[in-house]
Amino acid sequence: MKLQYLLIAAFLTSVIIRPAVSTAQDFTPQEMVMEDPRIGLEAGLFDAEEAIWNLRKVATVLPPETFVGVTNSDLAFKDQYVFQGNYNGILIWDVSNPSNPVLAKDYLCPASQSDVSVYGNLLFVSGEGTGGRLDCGTEGVQESISHDRLRGIRIFDITDVRDPQYIHNVQTCRGSHTHSLLKDPDDDENVYIYVSGSAPVRPAEELPGCSSMSPSEDPESALFRIEVIQVPLDNPQEAAIVSSPRIFEDLTAPPVHGPTDAERAEFEAAKARGEFVVSIGGSSFILPENYVAPMAAAYFSEEGITEPTAEDTVAFREALPDIIAQMIGGGDGADEDRGPNQCHDITLYPEIGLAGGACEGYGLLLDISDPANPYRLDAVADSNFSYWHSATFNNDGSTILFTDEWGGGGGPKCRDTDPMEWGANAYFTIDEEKKMHFKGYYKLPVPQTDEENCVAHNGSQIPVPGRDIFVQSWYQGGISITDWTDPSNVIEIAYHDRGPVSAEQMEMGGSWSVYWYNGYIYSSEIARGLDVFELVPSEFLTANEIAAANTVKLEYKNAQGQPTYKWPPSFALARAHVDQLERNQGATAEQIARVRAGIDQAERESSQAIIDRLKSRMDASN
Predict the structure, then answer these.
(1) Rounded to an integer, what distance in angstroms lies between the CA atom of residue 607 and that of residue 470?
(2) How far is CA 183 from each of CA 157, 187, 193, 262, 557, rounded to the nearest angstrom?
(3) Which H, E and C letters describe 304-339, residue by residue?
(4) pLDDT tens per residue, range 455-486
(5) Reported pTM
(6) I need a surface site. Which of 186, 264, 385, 535 has the fewest CB within 10 A?
(7) How many whole angstroms separate alpha carbon 449 and alpha carbon 378?
(8) Residue 133 gets which letter from DSSP?
């Protein structure tokens, strides 16, 4: 009998019981959205009212003084450290005790948007804004052409995490809005960085070889390509661009949707107030002041204007469409029917040799089996999507979700007047021919206010065995956890939300990104610092499923580098699968009870056997 119990515990997941896949149809969603406690939360920067469901907030820590009021961006993880990007540099938190994160280092080095990734003793940081300096200086760069400007990837040695050493940089023609780190399972000598840059192309006088001409006029154009950087691990100072793959070849302009009635009214009001409304990729945006100011400064500098007059400002406004056109890929009309000229995010899944490219107007599936030479396998477009922003695979790589950052992340796009298919997630299965097939949408199910920037943003898988569970940021919509095991019927199973930063006007805030790492959920709050959460049992997720997820331990994790989750044999894993078997009604109550009793018996006897062996060894040594 003892052998039988041990077999149940050891082989439940692969030999004795293989439960039916859990689907969202097994759950009952919330009754009515208007009863949702997230509605009507009181506003406040550090004292906003909060709502939480099926989660426990473990900690909230504020950034140091020099980083307060500056945008917190993405996260990376290594050992007991969380690396948090910020437009002023990098914050490194020691989360040995997740309920009490301690600031290990604040490294002042301004450059938007400071996306971060780590591998071994190396830290990589993106820089795209025109004010970033090679020397990390805080005075910025005022000249339109300067050899002091950093736009690309910074590399730090973090052998001593509390004392990062800036050792190298790799400059790129369009900077690095985001980047993705690829560790090829078959290459232990290098890592690769895929760079996505969406800024204007730099003048060749600043960085030789940069061209903003259309590819039809200049085959070496910096448009319509990505950069791949090879980093030799034994000599990272030799990191350099090794290829510039043109993964957008033959893509035509994607279908787009126009503005909503509410947006049209908003744009007209903004114009009347003197604000700048621009069109990017077929969609209109109110350009934030922090975007307008550097473009205006560059324009006036190029025109030799030191003290702009009202007429100069009118001239700048008239020139702005051409400036924007140059930013997004030329203005001569030669390539107006072409598809995207850059990706926003590329999620790399090296264990399966695939990547998901969220590339402005398209979602791409890439082959990355040769890290330096990725190529496109498939591309999908959707008129409901405005800006393909990020991608996530499920654990076995059979399904992929893409997010739509409609409005660019700075607008309130989760109001009850906003379409549920816009600013949402879209889900696709991947067939054996590596083609993607649309299955459905999901959007945050509770309306947010006019004062809250809200749209689909960054997240990651939570390693619940046998299920696809995703934790995701929605800016000031908070964080939401969904079950997308059935990509045609996605449901929410947990959330956390705060009231607006301000009750009077829209001010940027909310969760930029949120990721699971070694048993906890970490959220980078744009305006408020770092939040730490943990799952709690609910009707959607059992204590055993949570315990099994927490047996997965990672040495490091990067936002756009997806690991394969592997569960070590454990009694928690066995119990989790039994819970799922019960939820899916895959066995009778009597059968479930017998299996559970067998697992309990096996665990008791295994524990006693271990104790007996230890006592025997102690006796022998004495």
Answers:
(1) 34
(2) 17, 7, 9, 45, 11
(3) CCCCCCHHHHHHHHHHHHHHHHHHCCCCCCCCCCEC
(4) 999 999 999 999 999 999 999 999 999 999 99
(5) 0.90
(6) 186
(7) 37
(8) B
